Amino acid sequence: MNQLDENSLNGLNVGNLKFENTAVREKNNKLKLNMAVLALIGPGVLAAMGDNDAGGIISYCMTGAKFGISLFIPLTICLSVLTYTVQEMSMRLGNVSQKGFMILIGKYYGKFWMKYHLYTLLIENILMLTTEFMGMTAGLLMIGIPLWLGTVISLVFMLSIITFKGYLKKEKIALFMGIVNIVFVIIAFMVKPDLQSILNTFVKWNCNVYSPDLLWYIVAIIGNSVAPWMIFFQGSACIDRGAVAEHIRIGRVDTRIGCIVQVIIALCVIISGTALFGQMGNMESAGPNLIIKAIGANTGKTAAVLFAAGLFNAGLIASITIALSSSWCTAEAFKWNHSLNDSISEAPKFYAVYIGSALIAAFIMLIPNLPLNCMALLTQIIGGILIIPILIFLVIFTNKKEIMGSYKNSFFVNIRVCIVAVLLIGTALLFIVHSFVL
C-alpha cells in the first residue's frame, strides 16, 4: 500500500513536472513573440504618427471648431480601415520585393511614370513640410519665441536626427518622441465632451450638409488618412531596417497598432476643437497660433500649452518622416546610396535631399502673410487627390505573382482595395466638379 502510494506520488510529480515544463515553454514562446513584435515595431507606428502631422492636427482641430461633434467622428474611425489597407500593402510589398516603390515603378512602367511620381511627391512633400514648420513655430510662439527664431530652432531639431548613426537608433528616437502625442488625449478630457452627443453621431450626422465648406473638409480628412508619402516611407523603412517576408505577420501588428494610435489621437484633436465650435470666424485665413490662443481662452492656459507642445512634436516627427520619404524616393530613382545606416559621407546625396527639403520648407514658412490654416487644409486635399494613381500602382504590384509570389493580395484584400479606390476616386471627382465646374 505504501509502495503504491509512493509510485502514485512519483507519477503525479512527473506529470506535474511535464505540465510545468510545457507551461514554461509556452510562456517562453509568448515572451519571444512579444519581444519580436517590440523589436520590429517601427515603420507602421512611425508612418501613423507622421500621419497625425502638424497640418493634420490643425485640420482636425479646425474640423471640430467648424462642425462641432458631427459626422467627422465616425468618418475618422471608418477611415482607419482605409489607412490600414493601404499601409499593409506597402509594408508587405517592401518586405517581399526588397525594392523601394520608386524602383518598382521605374522597372515595370518606365522613366515617365517614375519621374511623374517623384516630382509630384517632392512638391507635395515640400508643402507638407511647410505645414510642419507652421505647427512647430506656432508651438514655440506660445512661449514667446519669435517666428524667425522658432523656424531656426525647428530646423535644427529636424536636422539633428541625421547626426545619430544607424537606422534603429534614429527610429527609436522618433518613436520615443511620439509619446508626447498623449497630450491630445489629456486635452480632450479637459474639454469635457458630451459622450452621448458623440455616440449620437453614429446614428445622426449632426452636420449641416449644405455647408459650402463640407466637401473641402471631408476631402482633407481623407487626404490626411492616406497621404502619398506614407506609402513610399513605410516600404523603404521596412527594407532599411532589414524586414523580410517572414516578418509580415509582425509587420501587420505594427501597422495595426499605428492605425489605432492614429485614429485615437485624431478623434481627440477633433473633440478638442469642438470646444471652439461657433466661436471662431474665418479660421481658414488665420494662423495656428490663433487656434492655440482660442483653446487657452476656452479651456485654460494649461490646455493651450499642452496643445502647443503636441503641435510642435507632431510637426517634428512628421517633418522627419516626410523628408525621409523624399530622400528615399529620390535616391532610389537616381540609384544613389539610400540607407539610414550610412553616414552622411557614405550617402551624401541621400542626406542632401533631406537637408534641402527642410531648408526650402523653412524658407517658405518665413514668407509674410501666408494663409497658414488654409494652406494646411489645401495640402491635405492635394494629398487626397495625388494618392489615387499611387494607389493604383500599389494594387498592381501587390497582385503581381512575379513580385509577391504567395504573398500577393488575397481576394478579400482586393475587395477592400476596390472599395477604397472607389471612395478616393469618387470623392476626388466630386470635389473637382464642385470646386471648378459648378
Descriptive account of the structure:
By secondary structure, the protein is mainly alpha-helical. The protein has two domains: 1-36; 47-437, Up-down Bundle (Amino acid/polyamine transporter I), CATH 1.20.1740. Helix content is 79%, strand content 0%. The protein is built from 18 helices and no strands. It has helices spanning 2-40, 43-51, 54-67, 72-97, 101-141, 147-160, 167-177, 182-191, 195-200, 214-225, 228-240, 248-274, 288-299, 301-333, 348-365, 372-399, 401-404, 411-437.
CATH architecture field of the largest domain: Up-down Bundle
Could you say which structural class the secondary elements and strand pairing correspond to?
mainly alpha
Count of distinct strands: 0
Radius of gyration over all CA atoms, rounded: 24 Å
CATH class membership of the largest domain: Mainly Alpha
What is the makeup of the main sheet?
A: none
Task: Give the full name of the CATH homologous superfamily of the largest domain.
Answer: Amino acid/polyamine transporter I
Mean pLDDT: 83
Count of helices?
Answer: 18
Number of discrete domains:
2
Q: What is the chains' assembly state?
A: single chain
Low-confidence stretches are: 1-6
What is the strand content?
Answer: under 5%
For this structure, the CATH topology of the largest domain is Amino acid/polyamine transporter I
Determine the N-to-C terminus distance: 98 Å
Helix-strand sequence? HHHHHHHHHHHHHHHHHH
Overall spatial form: globular
The amount of helix comes to over 70%
